[in-house]
Amino acid sequence: MPPRKVRTLAAAVSAACVALVAAGTALAAGHGGTAPRAPKALGGNWYAAAPYFMPLDNNPPDPGAVMDATGLKAFQLAFILAPNGGGCSPTWDGNSPVGSDTAVAGVISAIRAKGGDVSASVGGYNGTKLGQSCGTPEATAAAYQQVIDKYALKALDFDLEEPEYENSAAIHNEIGAAKILQQKNPGLYLSVTTAGTADGTGWFGKQMLNEARSQSFTPDNFSIMPFDGGFNGAASQTAALTHFNAVLRSTFGWDEATAYAHEGISQMNGRSDTGEYFTQADFQTVLDFATSHHMARFTNWSVNRDRQCSPPDNNGKTSGTCSSVPQGAYDFTTYSVKFAGATPPGTPPPTTPPPTTPPGQGSCTAAAYSAGAVYVGGDTVSYNGHTWKAKWWTQGEAPSSGGSGVWQDLGAC
């Protein structure tokens, strides 16, 4: 299944684990599972660097472990959509109403408890968007304001891509809503993300920019996604960024430096939906381009994919839960940290430091747990005299009944 284009909640076990952990976190924080911890003030550099993260699907890793391993402070949570059954109320992935949410609220509280924060992304590739169903900019803005108020958000991303951006009325509503929110929420960090093409962005992307110009709306950045469109490697991406700079200049009358100061990139780490490949070296090249041109944003899809598949190339397939290229855990996330101006830890720590010698193997028949090994769903190991089974991909998290919930205790050997 294409990892960016399929936004279902089919990973029921993963979602259930996230909900339980999140609810427990929220209760422990004294919020009863209904409202997240108030955010710590973060600089716009962190919202500009926040990689996308699906908190309810694609086997989400523990965000706290990602923060510890990389130094990351902000996540771009995806996606806010209209209800799958129709209507103008915000939901996560079209399935989980924001108004009654406790799971994502708990995840946000856990991130904020560690000094981080989140932005929410509205739109994306799949599902019905609020701009399509709400009818007017005012109604669309009111729906998004519910999300801002629920989670005390300081940042919001408008991911405007097909098929929504082919609907001029929907784009009018989305851009109009963004302008209303900008006026109603002073200091709100706003990004607008759209498709990338070899000449920067396509016809519909250019029409979206024209709509923003006609409404006199300027966000913190306009970002393109140069993947899934005949790209391969960093050179094709930096060329697209150069061309997109020219599009921004001609649309808004900016000079080159001003255009770069409003320009961003959203990449796809590893193998894309269409079989393009972007490695750690490509990310470094694009990062160097972005920083040398003083660009406004550097992000990627996604933290859920920032881990190695088994086998590393995933048999030539694209996954929503791993990158399909050889890598260490969260290699690609460290480039976001660098863009934000921070220095990633020299050696990413494991989620739980394992003992030097796994104790008490006794008569266990499964192989002993190894902190450096990659385990996928169904793999079994021996640890502390018990047999454990992995529920999904994991590396560096010692078997226990806590943590992210990835391990199932099958009992004493």
Describe this structure in words.
- This protein has 413 residues and is an alpha/beta fold.
- It has twelve helices and 17 strands.
- Strands 1, 2, 3, 4, 5, 6, 7, 8, 9 and 12 form a ten-stranded mixed sheet that branches. A three-stranded antiparallel sheet has the order 14-15-17, with no helix packed on it. The protein has a two-stranded antiparallel sheet with strand order 10-11.
- Helix 6 packs across helix 7 (168-184), helix 8 (203-214) runs parallel beside helix 9 and helix 9 (234-252) packs parallel to helix 11 (280-292).
- The two termini are 37 Å apart.
Short structural description:
This protein is an alpha/beta fold. Helix content is 32%, strand content 17%.
Structural class: alpha/beta
Oligomer: single chain
**Would you tell me the overall average pLDDT?**
88
| C-alpha end-to-end distance | 37 Å
Main sheet record: 10 strands, mixed
Radius of gyration over alpha carbons? Answer: 21 Å
Number of strands: 17
Helix fraction, binned, reads: 25-40%
Low-confidence stretches: 6-33, 348-362
Determine the strand fraction and express it as a percent band. 15-25%
**SSE string, helices as H and strands as E:** HHEHEEEHEHHEHEHEHHEEEHEHEEEEE
Number of discrete helical segments = 12
Shape descriptor reads globular
List keywords for this structure.
single chain, 413 residues, alpha/beta, three-stranded antiparallel sheet, 12 helices, globular
List the helices and strands and how they pair.
Layout: H1 12-28, H2 44-49, E1 52-53, H3 63-70, E2 74-81, E3 91-92, E4 96-97, H4 103-113, E5 117-123, H5 130-133, H6 137-151, E6 155-159, H7 168-184, E7 189-195, H8 203-214, E8 221-225, H9 234-252, H10 256-260, E9 263-268, E10 270-271, E11 277-278, H11 280-292, E12 297-301, H12 333-339, E13 374-375, E14 380-383, E15 386-390, E16 394-395, E17 407-412
Parallel strand pairs: 1-2, 2-5, 5-6, 6-7, 7-8, 8-9, 9-12
Antiparallel strand pairs: 2-3, 3-4, 10-11, 13-16, 14-15, 15-17
Helix pairs in contact: 1-4, 6-7, 7-8, 8-9, 9-11
